[in-house]
Queue: 3 jobs
Job 1
Amino acid sequence: MLKEITLSTSALRCLERLRTIDDYTYAHSVAVGSLMLALARHMGMEAGAVRDCGLAGLLHDIGKATVPSDILNKPARLSPAEFEAVKLHPVAGHALLRAAGGLPAIVLDVCLHHHERYDGKGYPSGLRGEAISLEARMCAVCDVYDAITSPRPYKAAWSRPEALRRMADWTREGHFDPAVFAAFEQILLASPK
Ligand SMILES: [Fe+2]
């Protein structure tokens, strides 16, 4: 995956920062970057846009570097106050990437808006529908899929069919862009295992 995306000096520095967070966040970031590459390619985006999607997926959670590690690594569900602290990571990440400089604008946009929901109930801005960039709508799908199919100290990983079934329900409830989720589902249903 790293071979396919353009790693500028600035992106490499961000990647180093990402590695200091924790193993789960690093592995999750690599997985989301890979899923973003596959989804962008499947949706027919041009090569430069595909690379930007990979980089955006890789760096989307970099703001977690600013979340206290006892909260980030808590082996249980978060309290409401702890969850509020975690919810600051898109804005913090956007500031980190802006300070790094030299990154494509869409990478910063995805970092800031990957927790927006298609129905407007997400954060930090409560953007709705197409007001959320296509790339941020794609990252929302890839992010949630990798999170729920990964084992965590407080919950077992869901299987691929279970994850897709639950995400189809959430798409009907308004969480994801239905067209983006349909494209994502096509990739996974077509790939082995
Ligand atoms: Fe996130």
Job 2
Amino acid sequence: MPKKDSYDLIVVGAGPGGASAAIIAAKAGLDVLLVERATVPGEKNMSGSVLFRELTESIFPGFQAASIHDTASSFASLAIKWSIDNDEKEYGVHAGVGSAVMDHQIIVDRSVADAWCAQEAVNAGAEPLYATRVDDVIWEKPIPGGMPRVIGIVTDKGERIYGKAVADASGLHSNLARKTGLVRYPKDKFQFAVKMIFELPADEIRRRFGFWTGASGLPTYDWGLTPVYFGSNPDFYAAHCNAIPDENVIEVVLYSNLTEMIEADTNIWQRMQWFLETQKHWLEGAKPIHVNFHALNTFDIVGYQFESSYLPGYVLIGDAGGFANPVESWGANVAQYQGRLFAELVAEMKENNDWSEAAFARYEEGWKNSFVGDDDISPMCYMFRDGTFKQLWLSLDEAVSAAVALKFTNHPYCEILPAFGPPFAPFMAKAVGLVSPLAPLVKGAEHGLAKLKDITNIVQKIKD
Ligand SMILES: Cc1cc2nc3c(=O)[nH]c(=O)nc-3n(C[C@H](O)[C@H](O)[C@H](O)COP(=O)(O)OP(=O)(O)OC[C@H]3O[C@@H](n4cnc5c(N)ncnc54)[C@H](O)[C@@H]3O)c2cc1C
């Protein structure tokens, strides 16, 4: 039972977004209720996730030094491969062995990290209400011509709890987001993930993966030693295999877009069987001990899907609004960022005693004017959405095939280089708008230039 019947801020869901909102609001002296359906936050999460080190530390000071990382491991380099139509070639980006490009991330077991972060929010003064599912919102009596206002929540036990502001951080497919009518998820928006955990003795894992002590002081290996795949048949799948020696586990994850799986007449478990075949070398003798299925936001082929991210009294945070980063689907950082942003705004609303629609609208302005909004309209996303990105890889694949064939049939480079032209024609056609309109790219570029204006002003001032 909650201690009070009314709060400044009710946070629904104690994942990364909810815990961030709760801790920042509690530290600002607000009355905060943190409601979570699990008995312990993180209880139902799949293990293993990458958090953004600096952002997490700035919201939860002491995070990096916390004992939850005692058995953690880390990545050094990065190798991402894009595989096309399951043929024999892979293309990708590889940061060299032993590099430190991955240092700004920290690998956590989400079932442990979520509990730790939520406890920090509670230590800061947020009131926990766990093992409680929020089933509905309470609406204010409609004011003619006004936007409907949310003034509280209804729990699965029938409790009616009032709040000046409700942060819906209840994750993908939020029942509240559907009830408030703000989000409609099309099937293009979903990826399914399957994660398998294998057990193997720590020494054998260290030997196979070649661990050393990295810059972070943690056992480290090169991510990309094992294949880190992205691919396009079906589109937008991703797969990787990670090792955590001090927990005696190797985890294998595969994500695949729902629409693409339907079109390719395959399913996530078939895809996983294929991926496991490619991982035999790492998994030999390892015992499967856990399997978990989960949905997550897809790499974005449809864009954010909401009518509005707020109503007076209510906002969508993180996965509840379908907000994972549209370019590569990292989502915890987006949820954390939005959680903090909203908590800071609620603190201002209380200070100014201004709970107007305009005050809540500042939340949407805030995230739109950050990396969360910028990435949704970046040219990269338009390239995903109209197929240009896929065409780029297909063109590259064809060009490389042609060039290699010419090389090994003794053709000179003056004949090999022009062979790159024709395969890139469909890509160029898409990119310059002969097939698809250029407008979205221009829109993205304009937005980028507008963002750069501040920087150019600063440079100008320095010059002056
Ligand atoms: C396999 C997999 C791997 C991923 N890897 C990464 C990664 O490495 N890095 C990354 O940044 N992102 C990753 N993501 C995405 C990331 O997990 C999400 O974007 C992130 O968890 C979103 O945070 P959130 O706070 O919005 O929601 P969630 O983390 O989903 O938290 C929602 C919380 O609300 C609770 N809840 C739900 N409904 C209710 C209700 N009605 N009442 C009360 N409580 C409720 C849930 O129990 C949960 O605790 C991954 C996702 C998956 C599935």
Job 3
Amino acid sequence: MEFNTKEKAALLAELNRGIISHAYIIEGAAGLGKKAFALDMAQAVLCTGDRKPCGSCSACRKCADGNHPDLHIFTPDGNSFKVDLVRDIRRGVTLTPGEGDRAVYILQDAHLMTAAAQNALLKVFEEPPLGTVFFLLTEKREALLPTVRSRGRTVRLSAAEDGQVYTYLKERFPKAEEKALRDAVRMAEGAYGRAEAIMKKEGKTERDAAAKLCSAVFRPVSRYGLYTAFLGQARKRESLVQIIDYLTLAARDVLCAKLNCGESTMLAPEEAAGYAAENTGAALYEIFEALLECARSLRRNTDGGTALTELCRRITQGKG
Ligand SMILES: [Zn+2]
């Protein structure tokens, strides 16, 4: 199963015609395959064969094995990309490439670069050494300085079809239960990396956190109480998105229990029935919608606090 094939084909066609930018901004939500995309492109850039990537030249083989000396991958340390790291990159860039006449730098989570780091990078962009190609991977292009943005060619990765994600999961987890596969596809919303993480149960902590939050969501005491309950469970943005996904599943279960349609996916049937009995159908629908909207706005990179405030406002409407 290949993803982002259209974007890949377009860029490869350019590369093979000799059109190459010195900086690409690869934008897309978590799990859409930004790194895989950049690695494929890096191989094509470094390939010495005729039709790039040929897959058989020494450069292609080294890229596939992850040990090409001119392919450099940088990740932020902790929550930011410090200026020191970019200085290291700059120092490296000014040296001549080790093997061929090209070098590729992949910067993951480029939106975490501090302004100082971006300005340092800009100096490289202003006088790009011949044969150096940058791939800046980001969930949030707007977090890059306009000057950086304007010097890179942006490629936006889009969500895959549910059917594609399903096929991908089925190949990887042939023994998994059908329901688990379908749930993962639904929650991932086209991000195959996230679907895979869900199948590997990487979100177990988040699922537990969501289970703990259920009573606060379906029996809200006050807006402030609900907000602090969320803060108590979700400290990192990435976990918050997953927690909201699981809560959305839970809300679906409660709605289904209320309307007597479909079975539970996340909650035990008796728990879902309990919450259903305590809420009106309209209130449950509002909770479900509010959670969906919260997940959407988090994926559009709305600040976590803002998204949570709106969620808590909608859930506790009329409850103080
Ligand atoms: Zn090659």
